[in-house]
Specification:
Radius of gyration: 20 Å
Keywords: Membrane, Transmembrane, Transmembrane helix
Largest sheet: 2 strands, antiparallel
Distance between the termini: 36 Å
Number of strands: 2
Strand order of the largest sheet: 1-2
Main location: membrane
Membrane topology: Multi-pass membrane protein
Protein name: Sugar phosphate transporter domain-containing protein
Subcellular location: Membrane
Strand content: under 5%
Shape: globular
Order of helices and strands: HHHHHHHHHHHHEE
């Protein structure tokens, strides 16, 4: 998805509009497939809408910062900083989500990530102050995104995973309509639409639907830190594709540091739940419950 977004922004330099097209396509496609009976999608229900509002804001802010990084930096810059995020998420998992602290192997892996990131910045010949400011902003947003969305996925019950996709992208569509109208009317008015930019946009929208679905599915299955590490390991393929497409790369030494970071990320082990965090029967009750077959009302606790 990183390469696809990079290509889409390269062909159509309007990141807000690219995001708007992606989330609108996801929302509309999911709802349409639900109406046709191909998938099960939750109906519009206010308690769930409220629960997913901040999920959408966190998701949207993270992707927007992501696209701004890609606009100012090379892809490797973004990937290597993303590879260091398990260090923060691992501690936050312990503080907020009831996980054990990382074991020695995982701690070594996360420290290796930090060293690799530091060396990359040192050797990166394409240092961009504006770009790295966006990286710092993204880092904070991403950490919140990983933790809060995991909390919501664990506590808000939906009829299917498609419901999460629908609610998140619906809120994102509403927010991005205003952002795009305010930030990019001149860019869109002067854009010459053609096969290349329309194809890049269309492909990014199609992949966005799949990414949204499987990301939520994965978040429900593993811890916030493990989800972060899985994403980092997948970036090896991104680097290989990027090397064959773009001329704006890091130096060979910087690339080596990048692979050190990704290798370290792959050695991380998911921390188990703490014994004192095992939920009681009351704590297991989800924040949102769906109607049962007997017609029980939904409730927000």
């Amino acid at each position: 998805m990183l390469i696809v977004n990079k290509l889409a922004v390269h062909e159509l330099p309007a990141p807000s509009f690219v995001l708007l097209a992606q989330v609108t396509c996801s929302c509309a496609a999911v709802k349409l497939c639900g109406l046709l009976g191909f998938i099960e999608v939750d109906e519009l229900e206010w308690p769930k809408l409220k629960a997913f509002f901040f999920v959408s804001i966190a998701f949207l802010a993270c992707i927007f910062a992501n696209i701004m990084i890609l606009k100012h930096c090379n892809v490797e810059t973004f990937i290597v900083f993303r590879a260091s995020t398990p260090l923060v998420i691992g501690v936050a998992d312990w503080i907020f989500l009831g996980r054990e602290l990382p074991n020695k192997r995982s701690l070594f892996a996360m420290l290796s990530l930090m060293v690799g990131a530091g060396l990359y910045v040192h050797f990166d010949g394409d240092f961009n102050v504006n770009g790295y400011m966006w990286v710092a902003a993204w880092y904070v947003i991403f950490s919140f995104d990983q933790l809060y969305i995991k909390f919501t996925v664990d506590n808000v019950q939906v009829r299917s995973n498609w419901g999460r996709v629908f609610y998140t992208n619906l809120w994102a569509t509403i927010v991005l309509l205003g952002m795009t109208a305010y930030l990019e009317p001149n860019i869109l008015a002067n854009t010459k639409w053609g096969f290349k930019n329309m194809t890049a946009l269309g492909v990014s929208c199609a992949i966005g639907v799949a990414m949204s679905y499987f990301a939520f599915l994965c978040r429900a299955a593993v811890s916030a830190t493990s989800f972060t590490v899985i994403g980092n390991v997948c970036k090896i393929l991104t680097v290989l594709i990027n090397l064959s497409i773009w001329s704006k790369h890091a130096s060979p030494t910087g690339i080596a540091c990048l692979f050190v970071c990704l290798a370290a990320a792959g050695t991380y082990q998911q921390a188990p739940k703490r014994a004192d965090s095992v939920p009681s029967e009351v704590a297991r009750t989800p924040l949102v419950t769906c109607k049962s077959d007997e017609g029980d009302d939904e409730e927000m606790k």
